[in-house]
Amino acid sequence: MRTTGKIKMVFLFAIALLFANNSNAQEVQNAKNYDQGFKMGFGLNAGYAFDDPYKLALGADARLQYDLSKRYSLTLTTGFTNLFVSKADGSDLGFIPAKAGFKAFVWNDQFYLMGEAGAAFAVTNGYHGTSLILAPSIGYATKYVDISLRYEHYNDFARVNNDGSQGKGVGQLGVRLAYGFDL
Question: Which UniProt keywords apply (predicted)?
Answer without folding.
Answer: Signal
